[in-house]
Amino acid sequence: MCLAIPAQIETMNEHDRATVVLDGSRTNVVLTLVPEAKIGDWVLVHAGYAITVLDEADALATYDLLRQMDAAATSEAG
Amino acid sequence: MTTGCTDICEKIHASALRLARDMGGVQIMEVCGTHTMAIARGGLRTILQPADIRLVSGPGCPVCVTDQSYIDRAVGLARNRPDIIVATYGDMVRVPGRQGSLSEARAVGARVEVVYSIQQALDLARQHADHEVVFLGVGFETTAPGTALAVRDARQEGLRNFSVLTAHKWVLPAMNALLAGGDVKIDAFLCPGHVSVILGYGAYDQIVRDYGRPCVVAGFDPQQVLLGVLEILDELSAGEPRAMTVYPSVSREGNARAREVLDEVFEIVDAPWRALGVIPASGMALRDEWAEFDAERRFDLPAEESYEMPGCRCGDVICGRLHPSECPLFARRCTVRDPVGPCMVSSEGACAAAFKYEMPARKR
Ligand code: SF4
Description:
The complex is a heterodimer of chains A (78) and B (364).
Chain A: E1 5-12, E2 17-22, E3 25-30, E4 42-46, E5 49-54, H1 56-77
Antiparallel strand pairs in A: 1-2, 1-4, 2-3, 4-5
Chain B: H1 7-23, E1 26-30, H2 33-41, H3 44-48, E2 53-57, H4 62-65, H5 68-80, E3 84-88, H6 102-107, E4 111-114, H7 118-127, E5 132-137, H8 144-157, E6 162-166, H9 171-181, E7 188-191, H10 193-199, H11 205-211, E8 215-217, H12 222-238, E9 243-245, H13 256-265, E10 266-273, E11 277-286, H14 295-298, H15 314-318, H16 342-345, H17 350-357
Parallel strand pairs in B: 1-2, 1-7, 3-4, 3-5, 5-6, 7-8, 8-9
Antiparallel strand pairs in B: 10-11
């Protein structure tokens, strides 16, 4: 429940909202907790809210790990 | 899967094993549902056990620590008020209470909607002006800022049919309560990654100062947990406990903005925890200024009692006193498909983790 996942900001919209890209799909997040975030930044997203801005290298490393975990979970389920 | 072990990971094992042997047995408590899962999935207990390093779960799974009185209130609301839509994160719906679970309430006509963000609960309130939408605010510091912001959104927008039944909690008071209780051996804490994004690892200085226990923040995968364990062993063998992080996303200061938002909307109150009882200054309640969004005040909810589901040892499990497999109901009467207590219901509960990953497949 406390898991948060990295995503990259694509566009910034009104009222602290942004569209982020995660694994090719787009979703909306709220940026109020990360006032410093800019387009192109990676953020850690938890339940629809960005909770911190990430260093790009860290974000990509985390992202790879999540994919491996997903792949493992899928193969276990199957 | 095993840990997906790389060379680095092998080295970590080797030195962790050596260090622990030098020091005798070490018991490390993790306080994070994602660690619980990573440890079970990576088979880390088996890997570390020969060196006498024991990893135990603490009160880190938000659903598991939620007192039964809260579950009963939530189910009561859903069942007794046809004008109410209960919006909740998915892990809560199958937790059984005296009147059954939320999902059983839904089966007899109650409106219970699973959301992955409180933003969707706001959407429900916008779409159903003729209903009251009550969001179940469960979770630690990672989740609570979203609740606070949603309450602010609701006021700004003039949404009058939205409220929150809050059971949000602070992790540190529970860690302190366990140390003060003294009946569980805790040589160090492996601290939660995403809670610490908000708190900052500096928040654990207090535990280091008052109890001399290392507090190391780690990320959510087995390799991160092992890195954290290695750091803990280094600190213990050097006799220099510290608060620090091996998870790069966590800073010393944390997210000050998020903590401001929490402070604006919530006040710190004494709160009931499963098995731990009422812990002083461990809960978040809506401040008087936000009373109209507080489901508790809005619907005049009856007081409910604290209790455990009969035979369920979840309370001992989340205090690190019992491994799930030691519960007499584990994998017999209580399974992931038909859970008895919240530690088996929650996807990150210690019993669910043990059931899914630490048992031979044929027994599941
Ligand atoms: S195995 Fe089931 S009954 Fe036993 S402690 Fe865990 S959740 Fe409770």
